[in-house]
Amino acid sequence: MMTRKTRRQVTAPVSAATVVKASEAASPGAQASQKHRTLLAVGSLLLLALVIGSVLYSMRGRFADSPADTTAMGIPEEGRQSSYVGAAVCRTCHEAEYRAWSGSNHDRAMQATSPDTVLGDFADARFRQHGVESRFYRRGDRFFVRTDGPDGKLADYEISYTFGVYPLQQYLIAFPGGRYQALSIAWDSRPKAQGGQRWFHLQPDRRVDHKDPLHWSGNYQNWALQCAECHSTGLRKGYDKTSNTYHTTYSEISVACEACHGQGSRHVEWANRVRPPYPAQGDIGLSRLGSNWNEAWKFPADGARVAMRGNPADPAGMNVCAPCHARRSTLSEERKPGAVLEDSHRLAMLTAPNYHADGQQREEVYVWASFLQSKMWQSGVTCMDCHDPHSLQTRAAGNALCNRCHNDTVYDVPGHHRHLSGSKGAQCINCHMPTQNYMVIHARQDHSLRVPRPDLSLSLGTPNACNQCHRDRKPEWAASAMDRWYGTSWRDRSSYGPTLHAGATRGVLALPDLLDLARNTVAPGIIRATAATLAQSHATPATLQTARQLLTDPDPLVRIAALGLLAPAPPQIRIQTAAPLLSDPLRGVRIEAARILADIPADRLGAERQAAQAAAMQEYQVALDLEADWPSGRLNLGILRLRQGRSDEAVAAFEQAIVLDPLFGPAYVNLADALRQLGRDAEGEGVLRRGLAHMPRNADLHHALGLMFVRQGDQRAALRELSEAARLAPDNPRFLYVEAIALHSAGRRGEALALLHRANQRHPGNIEILAALTALQ
């Protein structure tokens, strides 16, 4: 589904758990800046920790020089757990599949350096970026770079591994503590005619020095943190949070057979025992994956516009793709091949800044959630219908791929696409899968496969495929052209964009439509779950009925979002509604239920629920431990400990988050608030000022400091800090509201009213702003 399977780690995921506001001092909706989380180069998805409503390094790792070094070749006894055997063993029976996979981007996702694997120019090549000149050179078959290191000084580093192949290749360098750091200067492996065969920086417009967390030697460019899970097979991160070191292991260096099919020893045992003809069903000691794509899709009648699928495909074939092609966080490393994503990972919803208002890709989101929105997904199309799972190539070239299911006499003609046959505009993907560049040069198609909607570009500010090609024209021109070609009925096609856009911009006024969309079982689950997620900040007793209804939904994404609607509810209501989901079949749902009930003493749940709560909470703790190398992971742990009344542990967790990233603002805010709860407000002031020394323009820190001055009765200092927070973050309605209240308290009622009126225009439907306007008038 992507040119390269990597990339998923760094972005990640949506933190293992959503976090609720710790207290008034923690600004709701605060989110770590997108720049602060620019992903690791080749393989990534950045972890998005949602904090306060939504915010958010001696030993060398144990790496194998070749797959055989870590492959278990023996066959386990009957009943023993399966183990990895390696692709070479699979080849003995599956030569065709092995040949297709060999040389693919999965096969070459990560490789030990050699003249055969390194694509970049190491013939004493020079690259200069923001005053730093880096030199790439060789010593025999070893490859080196001289560049600025963690102290800002030029030093020589040996390249240990290559990362990715096309359209770019990155390079990993060994550091103490089991770390491998991804160099931010990458090799453009495209042909020279396409602008390739050159060195380039992954952050060309930003000066990233050794003090910046995004520097190649920093935490966020760490292979194990960001990318490893999706570039190797059988990977275990092996992070030790006490020593802050890694002991990472894998069964094979690349994405090999068992990354998708699971550990193969039981299958080898089965294969040694049975003889052809082999059974089409039953336990073969391995996950059966396939879509029967060639036989499954048939046109129901001559002249039919679209082919239909005879029998649904086994969802396991799709599910194996999801973990590495989704923006998500990891809940467990114990994933069963083909299992539902929500049993091992948590998927990011279709919200800003990752997605545009109508669900189109914006930041690096890795395809999965885009495809879940599509009519193709709803009609039973699978990844393997379009992509060969071993070579990763599409099953046909150009429009021929689409024409297998869409009648070419209807769709592949000027009467449909309104462009010259054979032209760029006549290619299906250019209208229905527009591209976005990630990592500077990696153009990826949007897999939501939508019809272009230039009219929504006008009302929602979203992009459209027409104007991606016709950059010199405006959306009005594109919409008028479509009116001439197709009439105006295309404008009436249903779109979830307006509702989701309203959910992000119109506050409580959007709540009824959000709840209607969340209940709409015809809509894709990812859309419904996003609607419920947007409704969470407006949850009231009136939303409880909808929440209860959604808790029984068959889609786990919807159940997880419904649990979030219960977060503000009183304890007894949460016990009655959320406790049953502590025993949900899927880990992700159980973990969210545990989070929602984290402040409830076990004895209030009843004997039948106590064991389920303990088990789910243990799963939650495992998920947090997996993310303990992320500052946001430590932050989420601290917020959990606060809710459990374990304040000293919360303080320690927040401090650890700051050690991992001194520029992680939410950690300072939550640490200061935890100290307030412990009666140590003076220490909290010191924490906030320490944060502001690193980040003087951080609005959350100014706001928290202002609230502290309110508690101290220093009205002038409070208003100064609260006003600065609102000035730095005018899109945060809470900051505007609090500034207005502070102005009114200072006897400046006219200024307060004027500010509230401006805030209401900017943030219509915000309950606090509306209530304040009513009260003051």
From TrEMBL:
Residues 89-115, 223-262 form the Cytochrome c-552/4 domain. TPR repeats lie at residues 631-664, 699-732. Keywords: Lipoprotein, Membrane, Signal, TPR repeat, Transmembrane, Transmembrane helix. The chain crosses the membrane at residues 38-57. Residues 382-409 form the Doubled CXXCH motif domain. The keyword Membrane applies. InterPro entries: ARM-like (IPR011989), Cyt_c-552/4 (IPR023155), Multihaem_cyt_sf (IPR036280), Multiheme_Cytochr_ET (IPR051829), Paired_CXXCH_1 (IPR010177), TPR-like_helical_dom_sf (IPR011990), TPR_rpt (IPR019734). Gene3D superfamilies: Flavocytochrome C3, Chain A, Leucine-rich Repeat Variant, Tetratricopeptide repeat domain. It comes from the Bacteria. PANTHER family: C-TYPE POLYHEME CYTOCHROME OMCC, DISSIMILATORY SULFITE REDUCTASE SIRA. This is PEP-CTERM system TPR-repeat lipoprotein. It comes from Candidatus Accumulibacter cognatus.
